[in-house]
Write a structure and sequence with these properties.
This protein is mainly α. The chain has a domain of 49 residues. The chain has three helices and no strands. Helix 1 runs parallel beside helix 3 and helix 2 crosses helix 3. The longest helix is centred in the last third of the chain and has 27 residues. The chain is elongated, with a radius of gyration of 14 Å.
């Protein structure tokens, strides 16, 4: 069970490292993002070590990537929206 969870976390971290939208984020900030996602999922009621928890982390990370991509595009276009 613990190995399954560890593998899922490694997959999420690998996914983060390959993301073009957050390439400029350093390892410390990636760890902070992952911790924030974990905290959110725990607050939502997901249990660590479950498939649903891993899915929640992935969803949180994807939502961050989408927000980051929109912010980056807005900055490039000179129309940053908050």
């Amino acid at each position: 069970m613990k190995y399954s969870y560890l593998i899922k976390v490694c997959v999420v971290i690998s996914f983060l490292s390959g993301c073009a939208a957050i390439d400029n984020i350093n390892a410390q900030n990636k760890a902070k993002l992952l911790n924030t996602a974990k905290e959110s999922c725990i607050e939502y009621g997901f249990k660590e070590g479950t498939d649903n928890f891993a899915g929640c982390i992935q969803k949180e990370v994807n939502e961050f990537k989408n927000r980051k991509a929109i912010e980056d595009a807005s900055r490039r276009d000179g129309k940053f929206l908050r």
